[in-house]
Amino acid sequence: MLAICLAASAVVGGVASSHASTADRLDRTRAHLEALTGEIATQSRAVEDARAAASDAEARAAEADQALVPLIVHRVEVAQRVAAVQAELAAAQERFHDAVVQAFIAAPGVQPGADTFAAVLDASSFEDLQDQLAFGEAAANVRAKSIEEVTVLSRQLTSRGSTLDALIAAAQDVRARRDVAVQEQQAALVREQQAMNALSAARTEVVALIDRLRAKLAPKDVQDVARAFQGDNNISYGKWAEAFLQVMGAARCHANLVVAIAWQAQEGTQAAWNPLATTHRMDGSTDFNSVGVQNYRTLGQGLEATKETIENGWQTYGYGAVIRSMRDCADPLDTARAIAASSWCSGCAGGQYVIGIVPAVEASFETYYDL
Predict the structure, then answer these.
(1) Confidence at residue 56, expressed as pLDDT on a 0 to 100 scale
(2) Segment 91-113 mean pLDDT
(3) Sign (positive/negative) of CA torsion 271, 274, 275, 276?
(4) For residues 252 and 324, what is the distance between their CA atoms, to the nearest angstrom?
(5) Kindly report the CA angle at 138 between 137 and 140, in degrees rounded to 5?
(6) What's the pLDDT at 106?
(7) CA torsion through residues 280, 281, 286, 291, sign
(8) What backbone torsions phi and psi does residue 250 show, to the nearest 5 degrees?
(9) In sequence order, which residues have a C-beta less than 8 Å from that of residue 123 and are 6 or more positions away?
(10) pLDDT tier at 13 (50, 70, 90 boundaries)?
(11) Which pTM value belongs to this model?
C-alpha cells in the first residue's frame, strides 16, 4: 500500500513539475518574443533613419552637382578670356617693340622721347629742328600709348587670373562637399542594409516561434507582434490582403492571398493604412518617411490610394500585369515575378522582391495571415 502511495505521489509530482516546466518555457518564450518584438521596432526605426540619412546625403550631392556645373562653365569662360588677354598683351608688347625699333630706324642717333634741348643741339637748321621735335613727340606718343595699352592689359590679366583662381577654389570646395555627401550616402545605405538584415532575421525568428507555440499563445501575444510589424494603424496582413483583392476585382483565392501577404511582408512598413508603401498623396495624407511614403487617415483611403497607384501605372509601370495575374488566380510565384518585373520596387532585394518571401509565407500561412 505504501508503495502504491509513493508511486502515486511521484506521478502527481511529475505532472506538477511538467506543468511548471511547460509554463516556465512558455514564459521564457513570451519574454523572448517580446524581446524580438522590441528588436523589430528598433531595427525598423534604424532602417527609416538610414533611409532618411541616405536621402539627405543624395540631395546634398545633387545640390553640389548643380552648383558645380555653372562654376565649371564660368571657369572655362574666364580661362578663355584670360587666354585672349594674354594674346592681346603679347600683341601689344610686340607693337611697342616695333614702335621703338621704327623710331630708331627713322631717326638714327635720336632717342624717342629725348628732351627738347638735345633736339635743338643736334639740329642743323630750323627746319631740321622742327622735324626733330615733331618726330620726337610722335615717337613719345606711340611709346606712351603702347605702355598704357600693355599696362591696362596686364591689369586685366591679373584681375581675371584672380577670378579664375577663385573659381577653381570654389569648384574644388563644391567637389569636396559632394564627395563627403556621396560617402555619407554610401555609409547610410550600408547601415540601412545591415538594419534590414537584422530586421529580417528578427521577423523570421518571430514567425518560427509563433508557428511552434501557436496553440499556447494568447491572441494578444500575436497582436503585439503584429503591432511591431505594422504599427498601430493597420489590420493583419491577411485581412488587408482580402480587402485589397476585393478592391482590385481579384478573387480571394489562396494563391492570391499568399502573394498579397508576401508583398506586404516584403515591404515591412509601419506607414498608417499603407502596407504596400505607396507614395500616392491623398486628401489629408502625410509623409511617413523622407522618400514620401504616405500615412493615410483610414483603411478605406489607403486601399483607394493603392488602387489609384496601380491604375495610374497600369501600362507605364507594368502594374496591370500584376492584377491580371491575380485575376487569373495564378501561382503566387508567377504573380510575384510580375511584381518584381514592374516598377513598384525595381531591382529591390537583389531582383527577388516578393519572390524570395513567397515560400516562407506559404510555409507559415496562418501565422503571416494573423500578423
Answers:
(1) 78
(2) 61
(3) negative
(4) 14
(5) 65
(6) 57
(7) positive
(8) -115, 150
(9) 129, 132
(10) very low
(11) 0.62
Element (H, E) at 180: helix 126-213
Summarize pLDDT for 127-161 with one digit per residue, the tens: 554 555 555 666 667 667 767 776 776 777 677 77
Q: Which of 96-105, 190-199, 305-314, 317-326 has the lowest mean pLDDT?
A: 96-105
Q: How many residues does the chain have?
A: 371
Q: Say how many Å lie between the first and final Cα of the chain, rounded.
A: 55
31-36 mean pLDDT: 70
Q: At which residue does the C-alpha cell 506607414 appear?
A: 271
- The alpha carbon dihedral of 56, 61, 62, 64 has a sign of positive
329 in Cβ contact with 258 (< 8 Å): no
What value does the mean pLDDT take over residues 337-350?
Answer: 92
- Is residue 190 over pLDDT 60? yes
Three-class secondary structure of residue 318 per DSSP: coil
- Find the Cα–Cα–Cα–Cα dihedral 192, 198, 201, 203, rounded to 10°: -80
> Which residue has 569662360 as its cell numbers?
77
Q: What is the DSSP string of 294-359?
A: EEPSSHHHHHHHHHHHHHHTTTTSSHHHHHHHHHTT--HHHHHHHHHHSSSSTTGGGGTTTGGGHH
Say how far apart CA 320 and CA 312 lie, in whole Å.
Answer: 10
Distances (CA, A) of 3 to 7, 11, 22, 332: 6, 12, 28, 62
3 by DSSP, 3-state: which? helix
DSSP letter for each residue of 117-172 = HHHHHH-SSHHHHHHHHHHHHHHHHHHHHHHHHHHHHHHHHHHHHHHHHHHHHHHH
